[in-house]
Design goal:
Elements (H helix, E strand, L loop, with lengths): L12 H19 L4 H33 L6 H22 L1
Length: 97
Amino acid sequence: MTSPETEPDDGDPLVREVRLRKKRRQRWLREGDASVARRLAQIGVLGWMIVVPMLTGMFAGRWLDRTFNSGIFWTAPLLMFGLVIGCWSAWKWIKNV
């Protein structure tokens, strides 16, 4: 049994989640509910976080395919790689918000 003076270990996932939830609740009490405009802005940011890496992969793939005359050999995998990177970065951003 732990005494009240000792702090729980931050390595414990449950402790981390409880502290994160407490921090979010304190921010909500301080700032209140987000406006509709702010929520729409967040959705827009999420969209661009996914689309920009996909477009970058597609343009790089098209350039490589034209350079090496290889059909869509580079475009398809780089487009999918951009999608994965975009979804991963969006997930990380949402998790930290």
